[in-house]
Amino acid sequence: MAMNRSTGILLPISALPSKYGIGTLGKEAYDFIDFLVKANQSYWQVLPIGPTSYGDSPYQSFSSSAGNPYFIDLDILIKDGLLNENDVEGLDTNDEYIDYGRLYETRFNVLYKAYKNGIDKYHDEYESFKYDNQNWLYDYSMFMAIKKHFNMVSWLEWPDENIRKRNEDTLRYYEDLLRDDIEFYSFMQFLFYRQYKDLKQYAADNGIKII
Fold this sequence. Notes:
Shape: globular
Structural class: mainly alpha
């Protein structure tokens, strides 16, 4: 019996061309899907898309459900009215390699502006996203906010033993203290998945599966 065979190409999202220092879910990702169609391919295999931790390996992530905020496309945010050209001034680079240190120092400041500009604009859609992802989103966002509060050190080194043990009173204390940061990390996931969903739909419409 003859077997149906399909082929594809492995390309990390981070390796896509980008003027902002790392590949994103923007135009170059759509262009790559167009290339796959022309090349009679069926699959785009990406590396894990989770947020990276120390060392920035895609195989070492804070979450199995969250997306990497570095992959959020800034030009799409400009198009959506969440940023303007001045917000991304100075972020363009022609570096041959990804400078993760530079990304860490600059990207979150820009995404925070998008959060402040978008939290009301996308209120209903964002609230639906939080409801649909309540099984992981809030815990992830709170973890990241607390980690930021403690200068991004490993949770094993957090100086507050009660939060490491998830003491209920202590959890409520940090929920109140870090409310804005918790919301920011949640909204970044909303932005990531909004762009990722559109990209996957474009791929599906063109007969390409992202794996």
